[in-house]
């Protein structure tokens, strides 16, 4: 799976050596058969990031093209998939990579006729603030030997743990291909991995890894570096979120030629969704012929407005106080959502790397394209990587370490001038974005609901189990199926037990 915010710098492929075997054939998505109930007239989606654009696509796939889809977006389409321009070239500033096991994302790219961006190889290393504790080389066997020499069997034990989790998680694609949905996140997790998966949302990744024999040293050096680079948090994050992240932190990753945000804009164009550039302020409940009807109130540059809908999907963070969506006329009232989101600052810097800071006085000798960091006093950044533009020609080559290049630096706070001077000898430009990349996993214990009301759904619930672009797509498919099955009163497709047996018998 992909990482939380989707992989700031790419951790070295040799860190995990994960190969996940997925049994069975995938069933390609198709239009669901029409139910007995008349289809909804209008559906609203709040948010046009990867979750919102995916759920719009899946909703149309199941309800059919006659349903009107309105997608509200207060900023730009793509959400946390975004680019910035440096010296007339565009670079990913948000979600950077997908993983080869991201089956929904692979399907989207094929449906939209997009292409995988050519990968430009580069070595990675882990830095403590004083020295590198692990350095990737050009020789695979030497990388293996170094892992064994430093950490013994820890990386193999990690691989086995992640592989076991992922093998069970991949069942979700077969369930969804057969139209099954889940009304609670706990039910979804339990259908995949039993109570073990549910418990993994309540215990830390460090506790789980120590239990399977991974050493504390490996956790402090490697696992901590990957978590800091992606989630900006420590090894106290829940085990399930950690497993999803670690599965996506190895090789076989890709990006979209022309920018990952093309997936979002492409899906919305494919569904012919009506994009309303406005901030949703309130959702109020009404009724029509005994069915709930939802009024979405919004504000844009022309002033306030509102529209009525049969189904509403919220694909933005309700935990984020900046959204300030209020709910009216609901009985019982929709409760407030506790918890906060973790902020990571992304600085896109065009300049000359100060390789001396990393112990290389001669910049020509600096061999790394990405640097991850451990948790250490005085370390003011989580990770940094020499990034390539979103359009790569066949003749493109990475800048040499002594040349001016574009670097993406992730940190907990905006970098001060003195900190920039420590990382760069000089620089031409710095562009800063603050992202709420994922939940602060220590801020709440209980998983939020998916169903807020009869036909009012919260897609971003999934982030509280694990945060990534593919997890948003999985959540989108689940919500679309849930909305469809509930609309047509098909209870046999919701929260079913022993789904592996049911799916086998349906083949």
TrEMBL record:
Residues making up the signal peptide according to the UniProt record: 1-27
Pfam families reported for this sequence: NAD_binding_8, Prenylcys_lyase
Taxonomic superkingdom: Eukaryota
Keyword GTP-binding part of the UniProt annotation: no
EC number(s) reported in the record: 1.4.3.2
Any GO molecular function: L-amino-acid oxidase activity
Domain Prenylcysteine lyase: 134-496
Similarity comment text for this entry: Belongs to the prenylcysteine oxidase family.
Name of the protein described by the UniProt record: L-amino-acid oxidase
Lineage: Eukaryota, Metazoa, Chordata, Craniata, Vertebrata
């Amino acid at each position: 799976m992909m990482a939380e915010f989707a992989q700031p710098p790419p951790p070295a492929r040799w860190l995990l050596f994960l190969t996940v075997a997925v049994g069975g054939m995938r069933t390609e998505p198709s239009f669901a058969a029409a139910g007995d109930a008349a289809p909804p007239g209008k559906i609203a989606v709040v948010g046009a990031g990867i979750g919102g654009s995916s759920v719009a696509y899946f909703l149309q796939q199941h309800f059919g093209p006659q349903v009107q889809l309105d997608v509200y977006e207060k900023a730009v389409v793509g959400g946390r998939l975004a680019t910035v321009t440096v010296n007339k070239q565009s670079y990913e500033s948000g979600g950077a990579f997908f993983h080869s096991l991201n089956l929904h994302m692979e399907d989207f790219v094929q449906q939209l006729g997009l292409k995988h961006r050519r990968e430009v190889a580069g070595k990675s290393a882990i830095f403590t603030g004083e020295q590198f504790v692990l350095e990737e080389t050009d020789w695979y066997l030497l990388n293996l030997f170094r892992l064994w020499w430093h950490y013994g069997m820890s990386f193999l034990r990690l691989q086995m743990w992640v592989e076991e989790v992922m093998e069970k998680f991949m069942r979700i694609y077969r369930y969804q291909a057969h139209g099954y949905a889940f009304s609670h996140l706990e039910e979804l997790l339990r259908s995949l991995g039993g109570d073990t998966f549910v418990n993994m949302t309540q215990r830390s990744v460090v506790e789980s890894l120590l239990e399977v024999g991974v050493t504390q040293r490996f956790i402090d050096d490697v696992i901590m570096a990957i978590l800091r680079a992606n989630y900006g948090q420590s090894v106290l994050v829940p085990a399930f979120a950690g497993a999803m992240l670690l599965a996506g932190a190895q090789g076989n990753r890709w990006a979209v030629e022309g920018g990952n945000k093309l997936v979002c804009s492409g899906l919305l164009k494919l569904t012919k969704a009506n994009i309303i550039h406005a901030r949703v302020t309130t959702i109020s409940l009404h009724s029509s012929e005994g069915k709930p009807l939802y009024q979405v109130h919004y504000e844009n540059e022309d002033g306030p407005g509102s529209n009525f809908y049969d189904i509403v999907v919220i694909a933005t963070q309700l935990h984020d106080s900046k959204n300030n969506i209020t709910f009216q006329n609901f009985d019982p009232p929709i409760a407030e959502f506790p918890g906060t989101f973790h902020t990571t600052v992304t600085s896109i810097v065009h300049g000359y790397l100060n390789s001396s800071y990393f112990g290389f006085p001669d910049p020509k000798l600096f061999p790394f394209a990405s640097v991850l960091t451990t948790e250490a006093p005085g370390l003011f950044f989580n990770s940094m990587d020499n990034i390539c533009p979103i359009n790569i020609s066949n003749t493109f080559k990475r800048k040499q370490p002594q040349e001016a290049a574009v670097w993406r630096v992730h940190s907990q706070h905006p970098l001060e001038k003195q900190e920039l001077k420590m990382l760069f000898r000089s620089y031409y430009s710095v562009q800063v974005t603050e992202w709420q990349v994922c939940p602060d996993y220590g801020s709440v214990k209980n998983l939020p609901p998916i169903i807020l009301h009869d036909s009012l759904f919260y897609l971003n619930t999934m982030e509280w189990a694990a945060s990534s672009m593919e997890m948003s797509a999985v959540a989108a498919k689940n919500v679309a199926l849930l909305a469809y099955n509930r609309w047509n009163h098909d209870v046999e497709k919701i929260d079913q037990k022993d789904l592996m047996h049911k799916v086998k018998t349906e083949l």
